[in-house]
Structure formats: C-alpha cells, structure tokens
Amino acid sequence: MEAKSFRKAGHSPSLLSAFLYFDVSFMIWVLCGALSLYITKDFGLTDTQKATMVAIPILGGSVFRIPMGILADRIGCKKAGLIGMSLTLIPLLWGWLGGTSLLEIQMIGFLLGFAGASFAVSLSLASRWYPPQYQGLAMGIAGAGNSGTALATFFGPQIAQAYGWHNVFGIAMIPLIIVMIVFAILVKDAPNAPAPKPLKNYLSVFKHADTWWFSMFYAITFGGFVGFANYASIFFYDVYGDSTHPGGLTKVQVGYLVTITVIAGSLFRPVGGWIADKIGGMRLLVILYSVISVCAFAISTMPDSFFVMLLYTSVMMACLGMGNGSVFQIIPQRFSSEIGVITGIVGAAGGLGGYLLPTYILGPLKQSTGSQVTGFLVVGSIVLITTLIFYAVTRSWRKTWAKAESGVNF
C-alpha cells in the first residue's frame, strides 16, 4: 500500500531518469580513482600526488555543483541535466584521445567535475516531484545513483587491463549518450517548480547559518563516501597488494574489493532516506556518525586479514551512504523553495570534503609516516567531534523550524 502511494505521489519516469543520470555521471566522475593504479604507474607519482590526482575530479564537482544547482532552478532540471551531460562528453573525449601528461590528466579530472555536478540536478528533480513525507525515500532513490562508483571500480580495471586505461574513457561515452536520450524522452519538470529569480536571491541562502551547518554535516557523510571511494584502490593495494606483499592482491582483485565497499554505501543510501522518513533524519544521523567514527578507528588497527578490513570499510561506507540519505531527508524541510541552489551548495561542500580527505589527510599522512594508520585515527577523531556538534545544533533546530507539529519526523 505504501509503495503504491509513493508511486502515485510523484512522477516515476522522472525519478528513474534522475537515478540514471546520477548513476552514469557518478561512474564517470570517479574514473580517475577507479583507474588510479594504472594511471599512477605511467607517471610514477608519490603518495601525495596519487591522492591529489584522484581528488581533483571531486574538487571539480564541488566547483560546478553550485552553478548547476542555480541553473536547475532557473531553466528547469531537464534542460540543466542535458547541458551537464553534454559538457561531460568533453573530458571523456580528451581522456580517450589525449591525457599523455600529468597536467592533462589533472585538467581532465577537473572537467570530470561536470559529471559530479549532476547531483545538484538529479536530487532537485526528485525532490520537486514528491511531498514532504516521501522526501527521504525519493532523494535516496535518486541519490543511489552513486552506485555508479561500483560500475567504475568493477569494470574500469578489467577494461584497462585488457585495452589500456585511455580506452575506458572512450567506452564510458556510450552509456552516457544512452542516458542522455532516455533523460530527454522521459523527464518532465515538476509543475510546482519555483519561478526564476534574480541571481542575488539564490545566493541569499548563504546568509542562513543552517546552510553552513548542512554543508559541514554533508562534508562528513558524502565527503567521506566519495573521498574514500576514490582513494580505496590506492589504500587496499598499498596495504594488501602484490607490489608490497608476495602473493598479495592484484590490481583487478583490489577493484573487486573496492566495488564491494562502494556497493555497501550506494545501496544503503535509499535505506537511510527511508529510515529517516520513519524515525527522523536527526535521530538517525547521531547513530550513524557514531558508528562511522568507531569504524575509522577500527580501520586504523590495520588488521592482517583483508576480509576483516573489508568488513570495517563496508560498514563505514554503508553508514556514510545512509548518512547521505538522512541529510537530504532534512534539507527539503528547511529549504523547500530553494532546493536547487541549496542542493548545489551542500553538494559542493560534500565534494569539497571528498577532495580534502585524500589530498590533505590520507595521502600526506601516509607519505610522512609511511603508514595509513595516522590518517584514519585523524578521520575517526574528526567524525567524533562532528557527532557532538551535530547533536548540539539539532537541539536548536528542534526549538525553531524542526517542530513535531509540522507532521514530519526529524
């Protein structure tokens, strides 16, 4: 009965298209991370350079998400999505036919941020079609498109092994073009989409403290997910790979492990949104942040068995994925009329968190200490502090806009 009510409440073809757009875009966005073991071998990079290389696309996504969110509000999600996918073809073509120097790879990676900016469009499209009681589930389904990471980490290394990593970029254009056609045919902009406003009106959300709080909290959940998803191949191969341990994991096997951890985070995103609809995103996030912190400390013990490590990383990624869904169960309740731009801003903060994690924490600490231990001790401590801050901030929200009489679980 509930599933039937959910389907009737919105527009299923648009929700499916939002998922597909996000899925193929996310697959493309993390290609540098999925192919990192092959790309870095060609250029002989240091630990810090490796971390920076896989993080640059995340930075690009952060930069492009805000203008894409504004574009979605001004011209509609359908046109904005088609523009975003068209722009994504540029770095794929460049990576296929060029990418012969480290500078080129970094520029291609930055332009892959057009794919990462799909977040601001796909989640806005999903949100506008569904009422408040289904926001968590609808945005969780659209956001489950981050499962595209699993496609990249599973197929990317195999294709690179067989045909070379440049051809992976060329092959990736095929599913993107297919999704563009589906998106153009199926998507309808929601009838309740707000009328275009002057640019300064969109940017006025920066004046609200809640914008910054949401940005911080999402920088932990999404930043943790995408940052580790991009760095995971380097991490697993460094700790368990055959380059350091005789008989250790091959690059393709590492891709399988990364795929498992990514699937955990992706599949649990809509679950997090659904649970948040039931018990409240604020309640759920306190639990999730706590578990994420514990997992980070557990990873820092560097168990000898990669199966145990796989368990720790998968639970952490599952909680990060659920956290992503939970944050976006709350946001539309606070910023319903500015959902496009606020999604872009908060999404940009999430991407920035994903850029900072490997570039300024995991990579440099590995290079300076020779071990991955310190990086995850720092991550666990940051998340622990964020848990306490989140609890304090939400107590204030419950006294202002997140009230029980609204009919929405917080």
UniProtKB/TrEMBL annotation:
Pfam families assigned to the protein according to its UniProt record, in alphabetical order: MFS_1
Keyword Chaperone set for record: no
InterPro entries: MFS, MFS_dom, MFS_trans_sf, NO3_transporter
Transmembrane region(s): 20-39, 80-99, 105-125, 137-156, 168-190, 211-234, 254-272, 284-300, 306-327, 339-361, 373-393
Domain of life: Bacteria
Chain ranges of the Major facilitator superfamily (MFS) profile domain: 13-398
Subcellular location(s) of the protein: Cell membrane
Keyword terms of this UniProt record: Membrane, Nitrate assimilation, Transmembrane, Transmembrane helix, Transport
Bilayer topology: Multi-pass membrane protein
Family: Belongs to the major facilitator superfamily. Nitrate/nitrite porter (TC 2.A.1.8) family.
Name of the protein described by the UniProt record: NNP family nitrate/nitrite transporter-like MFS transporter
Organism: Paenibacillus forsythiae
